[in-house]
C-alpha cells in the first residue's frame, strides 16, 4: 500500500506502524463522572466498519508523524491522509 | 528425426545436457522441453496421484506435466517446468515423483487401483483403528504424495531485493505488450516492460504469421534496437510479475542466473517490488484442451504448444501428428507443421462441415474418443456419428480455444466475466483501477487486435497521467476470427483427464456432482482440481464447463475460482531476498562493544542488540563462576556495565512536566530540577506497560528511560500521546537511545571511582544525593550526564557521554579504578544483582501484570488523570491477589527454577489450585543459594511460609520459603550512603 | 450411509453409483428452534453438537456462501492445546480431546494427525516463559515436553543451528498437537449434522435480525424471514458486520491474515514448527505442500487479501530458520479475515438481546477450537449455562477487567 503523507507525498505503508480506529483521539476525561464506562467504550469497543475507516498510522521509519488515514477496508482504497495533530487540535478548538 | 528446420535456435553452438543420467544435446534458444522433444523424448514425468506416464503438454509456464528436478546437490530445484528451463551447457535434470525409473514407476500400481482412489475417497476410509492413521495410513500417503524433492541442504546461492518506480508497467512482451511499451516509451514516460520469457515476442515467436509481409522476428528486432536507445524504458526479460498488490504495487522475480551453469557470478534471482502509476496487463492467453479417454498419453499436447515447438524451437514431438480442434486455430497448427515437413495424420474437428485449409485430411464433425500408447502415443480413436476408427500418430495437438490470462487483473478478488462470443472469461470491470488489460489477455487474440489494443491501452493510461502520446505505425497483421464451437469434452466411459497433474477426471467431477459437492469451491476441494503447481491454468474453465453441463446451469452461473498470487511459483529464497542467516535482522552494537570484545566478553542477543553477557577470565571454567565473581566484585568494590540499550527519550518544552504527569501513573510534574524519579507507565487498559526513570535536568527538560525491549514502542506511544491526545501541550520529544553511551557504575567504591573522572564536581552525599542528576563534564571537558540511580541496590550511578566516547570512557574507568576493584559485568550479573534487589524486569513486566502485582499499587495516583489510571481500577485488576515476592529454597542445595508454578504444600496440583509462578531465578552468591522472584496469591501474607514450586515439565518439585523480594539491603541504606 | 474402507471398495467395484449426496439441500422452513448464523467450522460444529449431544431439534445453519467457506476453508490447519492462561488452556485441551475422537464419532476422515508442534526457544527469558507455559499445560491435563538444543536437532537437523541470527536454544514440544484436513472437518460436521436432521442452507445470507422488546424473534435473510427461538451467531471475520445489524459494537477488529502453501514436495517437515524469533510457522500437508504463515498484515481489512511486505517478512523468517527450503516455490498465498479481539481470546456468550448468542473473536486461532467451540456454544444455546472450560469467554470481561491476554499486548488487536 501507499500512504499519501500530507508532508512527504506517497510513502510505502511498510514505513508506517498501524494503531487502529482514529476514534482513539477522543480520550475521555479520567476524572469525570462515568469515566469507567466511557473508558470501556474508548479502549475496547470498535465500529469496525466494512467500508470507509479513519485510522491512525505512525510514520515510524520516517518523520514520526501520526497520521489519520481514511481508507476503505473492503477495497483498501485510500481517500486521504491528515496529520493527526491537526485533527486533534481542531477538535479541541471546536470543543472550547 | 524430430528436429525440424528453421526456428529460433542457435545451431552454431551445441549444448550438452543430461536427463535421468542420459546425455543429450541441444542448442541455445532451446528449453529443456524442446531439446528433449528434439531428441525424441516424449516421456518427461509422472502424474501426482496415479503416477501416469506424462509428456510435455504446453510450451510455457502453465505446464502441468513435464516437471523435473533441475540441477543436483544443494542446488537441486524440484518441480521445475521443463518448458521454462532454458538450456545451458552441462544442465542436469531428473524426472521426479517415481519409485524406480521413469519408464517403470512402481507406484504406477496406483493407476491400476484407481477405481478405489476416486475423488474424496480418503475422507471415507482409514478411520479404523484410530491409531493406525499416524502410524500406517498417513506415512504411506505422505511417502507416495508430494512431487519433487528438496536436498535439505541450505540454498548456496545469493538473492537480492530491489525497488523500482515507473509511470507504466507493461506485463508481457508479446504483440500487445510490445505495442504498449513502444507507444509509452516514445512519449518519454518511465516505462518498465517485464516478460517471463528469455526472448521478447510472446506468441509472435511461435507463429508463422508475417508482420508487414516480413517475419515477425524482423519487426521485433527493429523494436529491440529502438528500445535499447530509450533510457526511459527498462526491458526486463526472464522477469515474471507474480502478484498485483494494493495501490499499483507489483511483485516480480527476475531470474538473473537460472539460465547459466552454477556457481553464478551474480545473484540467482532478484525480487522486485515495482510501484507503477499505471499498468497494462498483456499476459496473453492459455490454450484449453478437450478431455477424452486417455487424453494424457505422452505426445498429446496443446496445439498452440505444438506450433511453438515447431516454429520457435524447431522440434516436433513426432514425425506424424494429428490435431483435435473445435476452432480454426487448430488448423493453423496443421498448416505450420505440414510446412515444416511433419506428416499430418488428420485434423479431427468437432465442427461439422469444416474443410481443410491445406493439404491434410480433415475429419469434420468428429472427435477423438481414445488414445493408445502408455509411454508414448501410438494411435487415436476417431469417432464420427457413432462410427470409430483408429488413426496412427505419435503426437496430438488439441485446440479447445483460449482462456485469457486474467490472473493479475483478478488478484484483488475482481471476478472475470463470461464472454459468450469468445467462450471464455475476460477481465471484469472490478479489477484494480490502475490496471488495464490488452491483447489476448483481454480476449483480443488476433495479432492485429493485440497490437492495436496494446497501443491504445498505453495511450489511455498515459492520458490518465496527463501525458500525450501518439499511436505508432503498427505493422499489418492477421486479424482472423477462430470460429470456435462450444465443445468442452468428449463423452465416454474411459477416464478423461481435466486436471492432468492432480489426476482429476471428468468422472471425478461427475462424482462430485453426485455427492452434492457442486459449488465450485467444493468441487475444487473435493477433487483437488486446480490445486496443482499450475493452479488449474489448463483445467479450471474446462472443469466449470463440465460441471455446468451436469447442473444444467451456465458456465458463469457455475462460477469461477478465486485468483490468488503468485501467478507462477516463486522460490522461497528470493522472497526472503537474501535477508537470511546472520542478516535476518539488523545487529545493533553497544558503544562499548569493541572494548568488551577485546576483553573476551561472551555476547548474547537481546532483541536486535548484542550485549556482553559475561566477561570470563583465565581459569574460570563455568559461566556461573564468572558471573558470581562479577556480582561479588560489584557488591564489594565497583562494577561497570554498559546500559546504553535502555531506551532514552528527551522531553522538552514548557509543558514537559504536565505531559509526563499524564503519561506516568505516578506524579512527574512535581519532580524537582536536578532529581530523578522512578516512573511506572501503564497501558490505557490499566496493566503495567513499562518502567524507567525520569530525570529533570531543567524546568523544561526531562530525560526519561525505558526498558530495552520497549524502547521503540514506548517512544511511539509518547508521540501518540503528544500528537493525538494532547497536541495543545508545549512539548517536544526525541529518541536519544543511540546518541548517548550510558554506563552503570555500581558498588561501594562507585563514588571514589567517579571522583577520579569528573571535572571538579562535588559528588558528596549532600551535594549529590540519591536520585540526583546533573549535566557536567568528565575527563577534562567531555560533556556528560550523571544520574545517581541504582538497579543493583548498591551505591550506584549511571553516567552518559556522547555515544562515540563510550568505548574510551569504559576503558578509562576500568583503568583508573583498578585499585578500587573496577570490574566489568555483563547482563547475567546485571540480572543477578537486580533479582537480589527485587527489581522487576522483563519477566515481571510481561504485559500481563498490574501495578498492584508489582507491589506498586499505591503509585497509581488517584489525584490526577493518567493513561491507564481509570482502567487499572476495574474489578478484575483490583481483585488480583498475586503479588511479587522473594523465594528461597528451604534446602539451600535445591534449585529455584523460573517457570515453576506455586502451590500450597498440601494442595493437589492442578490449574484450579495454582497460586502463582516463579518469574525470575538465579543463583545468588550474596545469599549463597538459588533465589527467585515470583507472583504469589496473597504473597505478602505468606511471607515466612513454605510453598511448593512445581516444575512437572522437568520432574522437579522444590519446597521454598516465601520472603521479601529484597534479598539485599531491604532498608535501602546502601543506596543512600 | 456409513463410510468405511469396505464401502469404498464396494463402490469402486460397482462404478461409484451408490454414493449419495454428503448432505441435502433443504429449502428453509418458516421457523426453527435454533438458527445458527454461519456455516463455517464453528457454526457447523455447533449445529452438530446441538443435535448430537444436547438433543436439539429443528435446527438450521444459514450460510451466505458455501458450507465451510469461513476461515475453516482458509487456514494453516494446526491443532494444539499449548496455551498458558487458565481461561484458555482447559478449553483448548477439551478441544484436543474432541479432535482425538472426532473422526470415529462423525464417521468422516478429517485426517487429524498428531505429529506434534514444536515452539522454538531462542533466549533464556523465552525458555522461562515456555517453562511456565509447559507446566500450565501439564497442570491442565495436556502434554508438554521441554527440549534442549540437542533435542531439537534430533528432530529437525536441517534447522539453522550454525549460522542463525537468533540461535536455537531449545523448544517446547506438544506431541499430541498436529494438523487436520481443514475442509474435511467442515464436511465431517456438516454431514454429521445433516444426518441428525439439521437443515444446512447455503446461499442464504442473513440481512437483519428481527428484535422486539429486547428479544430476538428471527432473522431476515436473502431467502426470506426465518423465525427462531434462539439465534446463535458464529461468523468470525464478519462478527462486527453481522452484530451491527443487532445494534451491537464489539471488542473486535477485522484484520487480514495471509497464509501460504508451497508446491508439492516429498516429505521433509514431519510436525509443526514455530520460529520463536521471527514470524513464521510451518507444517507439511499430506499432499506435500509446505503450509506456512506469519503475522497478520496489521491493518483493519475485510478484503481477504494481503500485501507484499508480509509475504517477504514470512519468507525471510522461513529462510532464516530453514535455509534448506529455499528452492521450494510458493504456490499460493491467500488472505482470511480474522476477528481480532481486544485481548486475543474469544467470546462465547449470551448478548444483551434475549435469545441472541455470540461466538466470535477467534483471532487467527479458531481452527483448533472448532470442536470445543461448537460444543460449548451448543451447550450455551441449549442450557443457557456456559461449558465449564469456556466460562471465561464472557463479553463483559473487558468492562470488568478479567481479560485473557496470552501475549500481554493489551487492547491492541493487531498485536495479539
Topology:
The complex is a heterotrimer of chains A (96), B (977) and C (416).
Chain A: E1 2-5, E2 9-12, E3 17-21, H1 35-44, E4 52-58, E5 66-72, E6 78-83, H2 84-95
Antiparallel strand pairs in A: 1-2, 3-4, 4-5, 5-6
Chain B: E1 15-19, E2 22-26, H1 32-38, E3 43-46, E4 53-55, E5 67-70, E6 77-81, E7 91-95, H2 109-112, H3 132-144, E8 159-171, H4 175-186, E9 191-194, E10 210-211, E11 214-215, H5 216-228, E12 233-236, E13 239-245, E14 249-254, E15 269-281, E16 285-287, E17 300-302, H6 303-311, E18 320-325, H7 328-339, E19 343-349, E20 362-364, E21 367-372, E22 379-384, E23 387-392, E24 395-399, E25 402-404, E26 417-419, E27 424-426, E28 435-437, H8 447-464, E29 497-499, E30 504-505, H9 506-514, H10 520-527, H11 540-551, H12 555-558, E31 570-571, H13 572-576, E32 588-589, H14 593-598, E33 602-606, E34 609-614, H15 623-636, E35 638-642, E36 647-652, H16 656-663, E37 676-682, E38 688-698, E39 701-706, H17 711-725, E40 732-735, E41 740-746, H18 750-755, E42 773-778, E43 782-787, E44 796-802, H19 806-816, E45 822-824, H20 827-837, H21 875-878, E46 882-889, E47 901-903, E48 916-924, E49 929-937, E50 946-951, E51 956-963, H22 973-976
Parallel strand pairs in B: 1-7, 8-9, 8-15, 9-12, 15-28, 17-24, 18-19, 18-24, 19-20, 32-34, 35-45
Antiparallel strand pairs in B: 1-2, 3-4, 5-6, 5-7, 10-11, 13-14, 14-15, 16-25, 21-22, 22-23, 26-27, 29-30, 33-34, 35-41, 36-39, 36-40, 37-38, 38-39, 41-44, 42-43, 43-44, 46-49, 46-51, 47-48, 47-50, 48-49, 50-51
Chain C: H1 5-13, E1 31-37, H2 41-52, E2 59-62, E3 78-79, H3 89-106, E4 117-121, H4 124-139, E5 145-148, H5 149-155, E6 170-174, E7 178-179, H6 182-195, E8 199-201, E9 206-212, E10 215-221, E11 224-233, H7 239-244, E12 252-262, E13 272-274, E14 281-284, E15 290-300, H8 308-321, E16 329-341, E17 347-350, E18 356-360, H9 366-383, H10 397-400
Parallel strand pairs in C: 1-2, 1-11, 2-8, 4-13, 11-18
Antiparallel strand pairs in C: 3-7, 4-6, 5-6, 9-10, 10-11, 12-15, 12-16, 13-14, 14-15, 17-18
Helix pairs in contact in C: 2-6, 2-9, 3-9
**Could you say what the CATH architecture of the largest domain in chain C is?**
3-Layer(bba) Sandwich
List segments of chain C where confidence is low: pLDDT < 50 over at least 5 consecutive residues: none
Helix content of chain C: 25-40%
CATH superfamily annotation of the largest domain in chain C: FAD/NAD(P)-binding domain
Biggest protein-protein interface? B-C, 123 and 120 residues
Q: Major sheet of chain C, described briefly? A: 8 strands, mixed
Number of strands of chain B: 51
Amino acid at each position: 500500500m501507499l500512504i499519501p503523507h500530507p508532508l512527504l507525498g506517497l510513502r510505502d505503508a511498510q514505513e508506517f506502524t498501524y494503531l487502529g480506529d482514529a476514534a482513539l483521539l477522543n480520550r475521555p476525561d479520567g476524572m469525570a463522572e462515568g469515566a469507567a464506562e466511557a473508558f470501556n467504550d474508548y479502549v475496547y469497543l470498535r465500529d469496525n466498519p466494512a467500508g470507509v475507516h479513519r485510522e491512525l498510522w505512525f510514520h515510524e521509519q520516517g518523520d514520526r508523524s501520526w497520521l489519520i488515514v481514511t481508507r476503505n477496508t473492503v477495497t483498501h482504497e485510500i481517500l486521504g491522509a491528515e496529520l493527526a495533530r491537526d485533527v486533534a487540535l481542531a477538535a479541541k478548538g471546536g470543543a472550547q | 528425426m524430430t528436429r525440424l528446420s528453421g526456428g529460433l535456435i542457435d545451431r552454431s553452438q551445441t549444448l550438452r545436457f543430461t536427463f535421468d543420467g542420459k546425455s543429450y544435446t541441444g542448442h541455445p534458444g532451446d528449453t529443456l522441453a524442446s531439446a528433449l522433444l528434439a531428441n525424441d523424448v516424449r516421456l518427461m514425468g509422472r502424474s501426482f496421484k496415479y503416477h501416469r506416464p506424462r509428456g510435455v503438454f504446453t510450451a510455457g509456464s502453465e505446464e502441468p506435466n513435464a516437471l523435473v528436478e533441475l540441477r543436483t546437490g544443494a542446488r537441486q530445484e524440484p518441480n521445475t517446468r521443463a518448458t521454462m528451463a532454458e538450456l545451458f551447457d552441462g544442465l542436469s535434470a531428473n524426472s521426479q515423483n517415481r519409485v524406480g525409473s521413469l519408464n517403470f514407476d512402481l507406484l504406477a500400481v496406483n493407476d491400476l487401483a484407481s477405481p478405489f482412489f476416486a475423488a474424496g475417497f480418503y475422507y471415507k476410509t482409514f478411520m479404523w483403528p484410530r491409531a493406525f492413521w499416524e502410524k500406517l495410513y498417513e506415512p504411506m500417503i505422505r511417502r507416495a504424495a508430494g512431487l519433487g524433492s528438496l536436498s535439505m541442504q541450505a540454498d548456496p546461492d545469493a538473492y537480492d531485493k530491489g525497488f523500482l518506480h515507473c509511470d507504466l508497467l507493461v506485463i508481457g512482451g508479446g504483440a500487445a505488450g510490445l505495442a504498449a511499451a513502444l507507444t509509452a516509451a516514445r512519449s518519454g514516460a518511465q516505462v518498465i516492460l517485464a516478460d517471463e520469457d528469455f526472448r521478447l515476442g510472446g506468441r509472435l515467436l511461435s507463429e508463422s504469421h508475417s508482420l508487414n509481409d516480413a517475419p515477425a522476428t524482423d519487426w521485433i528486432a527493429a523494436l529491440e534496437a529502438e528500445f535499447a536507445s530509450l533510457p526511459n524504458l527498462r526491458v526486463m526479460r526472464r522477469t515474471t510479475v507474480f502478484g498485483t498488490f494494493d495501490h499499483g504495487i507489483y511483485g516480480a522475480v527476475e531470474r538473473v542466473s537460472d539460465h547459466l551453469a552454477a556457481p553464478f557470478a551474480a545473484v540467482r534471482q532478484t525480487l522486485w517490488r515495482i510501484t507503477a502509476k499505471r499498468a497494462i496487463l498483456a499476459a496473453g492467453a492459455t490454450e484449453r484442451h478437450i478431455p477424452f479417454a486417455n487424453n494424457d498419453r505422452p505426445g498429446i499436447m496443446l496445439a498452440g504448444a505444438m506450433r511453438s515447438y515447431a516454429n520457435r524451437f524447431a522440434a516436433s514431438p513426432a514425425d506424424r501428428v494429428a490435431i483435435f480442434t473445435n476452432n480454426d486455430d487448430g488448423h493453423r497448427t496443421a498448416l505450420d507443421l505440414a510446412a515444416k515437413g511433419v506428416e499430418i495424420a488428420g485434423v479431427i474437428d468437432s465442427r461439422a462441415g469444416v474443410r481443410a485449409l491445406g493439404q491434410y485430411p480433415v475429419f469434420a464433425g468428429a472427435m477423438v474418443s481414445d488414445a493408445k500408447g502408455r509411454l508414448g502415443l501410438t494411435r487415436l480413436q476417431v469417432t464420427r456419428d457413432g462410427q470409430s476408427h483408429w488413426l496412427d500418430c505419435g503426437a496430438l495437438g488439441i485446440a479447445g480455444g483460449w482462456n485469457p490470462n486474467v490472473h493479475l487483473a483478478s488478484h484483488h478478488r475482481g471476478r472475470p466475466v463470461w464472454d459468450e462470443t469468445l467462450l471464455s472469461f475476460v477481465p471484469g470491470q472490478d479489477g484494480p483501477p490502475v490496471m488495464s488489460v490488452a491483447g489476448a489477455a483481454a480476449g483480443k487474440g488476433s495479432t492485429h487486435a493485440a497490437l492495436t489494443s496494446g497501443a491504445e491501452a498505453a495511450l489511455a493510461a498515459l492520458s490518465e497521467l496527463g501525458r500525450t502520446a501518439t499511436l505508432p505505425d503498427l505493422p499489418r497483421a492477421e486479424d482472423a476470427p477462430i470460429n470456435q464451437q462450444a465443445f468442452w469434452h468428449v463423452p465416454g466411459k474411459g477416464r478423461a483427464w481435466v486436471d492432468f497433474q492432480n489426476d482429476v477426471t471428468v468422472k471425478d467431477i461427475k462424482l462430485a456432482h453426485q455427492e452434492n459437492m457442486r459449488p465450485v469451491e467444493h468441487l475444487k476441494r473435493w477433487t483437488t482440481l486446480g490445486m496443482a503447481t499450475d493452479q488449474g491454468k489448463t483445467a479450471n474453465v474446462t472443469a466449470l464447463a463440465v460441471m455446468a453441463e451436469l447442473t444444467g446451469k451456465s458456465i458463469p452461473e457455475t462460477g469461477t475460482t478465486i485468483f490468488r498470487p503468485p501467478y507462477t511459483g516463486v522460490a522461497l529464497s528470493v522472497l526472503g531476498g537474501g535477508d537470511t542467516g546472520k542478516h535476518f535482522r539488523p545487529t545493533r552494537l553497544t558503544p562499548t562493544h569493541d572494548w568488551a570484545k577485546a576483553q573476551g566478553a561472551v555476547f548474547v542477543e537481546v532483541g536486535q542488540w548484542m550485549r556482553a553477557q559475561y566477561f570470563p577470565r583465565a581459569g574460570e571454567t563455568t559461566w556461573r563462576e564468572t558471573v558470581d565473581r562479577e556480582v561479588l566484585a560489584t557488591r564489594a568494590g565497583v562494577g561497570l556495565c554498559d546500559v546504553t540499550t535502555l531506551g532514552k527519550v528527551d522531553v522538552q518544552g514548557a509543558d514537559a512536566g504536565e505531559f509526563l504527569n499524564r503519561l506516568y501513573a505516578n506524579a512527574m510534574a512535581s519532580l524537582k530540577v536536578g532529581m530523578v524519579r522512578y516512573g511506572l507507565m501503564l497501558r490505557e487498559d490499566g496493566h503495567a506497560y513499562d518502567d524507567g526513570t525520569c530525570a529533570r535536568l531543567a524546568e523544561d527538560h526531562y530525560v526519561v528511560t525505558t526498558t530495552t525491549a520497549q524502547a521503540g514502542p514506548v517512544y511511539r506511544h509518547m508521540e501518540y500521546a503528544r500528537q493525538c491526545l494532547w497536541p495543545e501541550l508545549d512539548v517536544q520529544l526525541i529518541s536519544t537511545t543511540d546518541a548517548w553511551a550510558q554506563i552503570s557504575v555500581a558498588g561501594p567504591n562507585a563514588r571514589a571511582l567517579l571522583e577520579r573522572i569528573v571535572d571538579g564536581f562535588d559528588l558528596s552525599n549532600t551535594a549529590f544525593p540519591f536520585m540526583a542528576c546533573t549535566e557536567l563534564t568528565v575527563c577534562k571537558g567531555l560533556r556528560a550526564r550523571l544520574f545517581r540511580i541504582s538497579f543493583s541496590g548498591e551505591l550506584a550511578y549511571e553516567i552518559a557521554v556522547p555515544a562515540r566516547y563510550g568505548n574510551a570512557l569504559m576503558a578509562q574507568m576500568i583503568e583508573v579504578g583498578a585499585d578500587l576493584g573496577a570490574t566489568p559485568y555483563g547482563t547475567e550479573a546485571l540480572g543477578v544483582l537486580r533479582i537480589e534487589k527485587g527489581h522487576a524486569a522483563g519477566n515481571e513486566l510481561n504485559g500481563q501484570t498490574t501495578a498492584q502485582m508489582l507491589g506498586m499499587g499505591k503509585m497509581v495516583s488517584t489525584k490526577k488523570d493518567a493513561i491507564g489510571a481509570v482502567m487499572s481500577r476495574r474489578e478484575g485488576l483490583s481483585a488480583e491477589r498475586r503479588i511479587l515476592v522473594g523465594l528461597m529454597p528451604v534446602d539451600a542445595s535445591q534449585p529455584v527454577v523460573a517457570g515453576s508454578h506455586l502451590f500450597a504444600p498440601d494442595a493437589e496440583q492442578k490449574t484450579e489450585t495454582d497460586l502463582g509462578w516463579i518469574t525470575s531465578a538465579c543463583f545468588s552468591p550474596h545469599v549463597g543459594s538459588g533465589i527467585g522472584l515470583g507472583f504469589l496469591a496473597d504473597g505478602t501474607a505468606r511471607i515466612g511460609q513454605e510453598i511448593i514450586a512445581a516444575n512437572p515439565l522437568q520432574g522437579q518439585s522444590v519446597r521454598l520459603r516465601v520472603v521479601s523480594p529484597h534479598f539485599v539491603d531491604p532498608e535501602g541504606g546502601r543506596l543512600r550512603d | 450411509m456409513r463410510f468405511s474402507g469396505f464401502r469404498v471398495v464396494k463402490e469402486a467395484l460397482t462404478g461409484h453409483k451408490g454414493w449419495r449426496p454428503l448432505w441435502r439441500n433443504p429449502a428453509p422452513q418458516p421457523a426453527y428452534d435454533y438458527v445458527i448464523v454461519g456455516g463455517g467450522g464453528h457454526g457447523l460444529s455447533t449445529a452438530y453438537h446441538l443435535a448430537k449431544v444436547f438433543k436439539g431439534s429443528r435446527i438450521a445453519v444459514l450460510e451466505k456462501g458455501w458450507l465451510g467457506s469461513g476461515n475453516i476453508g482458509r487456514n494453516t490447519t494446526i491443532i494444539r492445546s499449548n496455551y498458558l492462561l487458565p481461561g484458555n488452556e482447559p478449553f483448548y485441551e477439551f478441544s484436543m480431546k474432541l479432535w482425538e475422537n472426532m473422526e470415529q464419532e462423525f464417521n468422516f476422515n478429517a485426517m487429524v494427525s498428531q505429529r506434534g508442534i514444536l515452539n522454538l526457544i531462542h533466549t533464556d527469558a523465552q525458555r522461562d516463559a515456555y517453562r511456565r507455559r509447559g507446566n500450565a499445560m501439564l497442570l491442565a491435563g495436556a502434554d508438554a515436553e521441554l527440549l534442549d538444543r540437542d533435542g531439537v536437532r534430533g528432530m529437525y537437523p536441517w534447522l539453522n543451528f550454525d549460522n542463525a541470527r537468533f540461535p536455537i536454544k531449545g523448544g517446547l514440544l506438544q506431541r499430541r498437537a498436529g494438523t487436520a484436513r481443514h475442509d474435511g472437518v467442515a464436511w465431517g460436521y456438516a454431514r454429521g449434522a445433516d444426518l441428525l436432521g439439521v437443515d444446512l442452507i447455503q446461499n442464504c445470507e442473513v440481512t437483519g435480525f428481527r428484535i422486539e422488546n429486547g428479544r430476538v424473534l428471527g432473522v431476515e435473510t436473502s431467502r426470506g424471514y426465518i423465525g427462531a427461538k434462539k439465534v446463535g451467531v458464529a461468523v468470525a471475520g464478519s462478527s462486527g458486520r453481522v452484530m451491527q445489524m443487532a445494534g451491537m459494537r464489539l471488542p473486535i477488529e477485522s484484520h487480514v491474515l495471509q497464509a501460504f502453501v508451497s508446491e508439492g514436495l516429498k516429505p521433509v517437515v514431519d510436525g509443526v514448527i514455530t520460529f520463536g524469533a521471527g514470524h513464521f510457522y510451518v507444517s507439511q500437508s499430506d499432499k506435500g505442500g509446505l503450509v506456512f504463515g506469519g503475522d497478520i498484515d496489521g491493518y483493519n481489512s475485510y478484503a481477504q487479501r494481503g500485501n507484499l511486505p508480509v509475504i517477504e517478512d514470512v519468507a525471510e523468517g522461513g529462510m532464516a530458520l530453514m535455509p534448506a527450503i529455499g528452492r521450494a516455490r510458493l504456490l499460493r498465498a491467500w488472505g482470511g479475515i480474522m476477528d481480532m479481539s481486544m485481548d486475543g481470546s474469544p467470546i462465547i456468550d449470551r448478548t444483551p438481546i434475549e435469545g441472541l448468542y455470540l461466538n466470535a473473536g477467534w483471532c487467527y486461532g479458531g481452527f483448533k477450537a472448532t470442536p470445543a467451540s461448537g460444543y460449548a456454544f451448543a451447550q450455551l444455546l441449549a442450557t443457557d449455562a456456559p461449558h465449564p472450560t469456556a466460562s471465561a469467554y464472557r463479553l463483559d470481561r473487558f468492562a470488568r477487567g478479567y481479560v485473557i491476554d496470552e501475549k500481554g499486548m493489551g487492547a491492541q488487536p493487531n498485536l495479539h
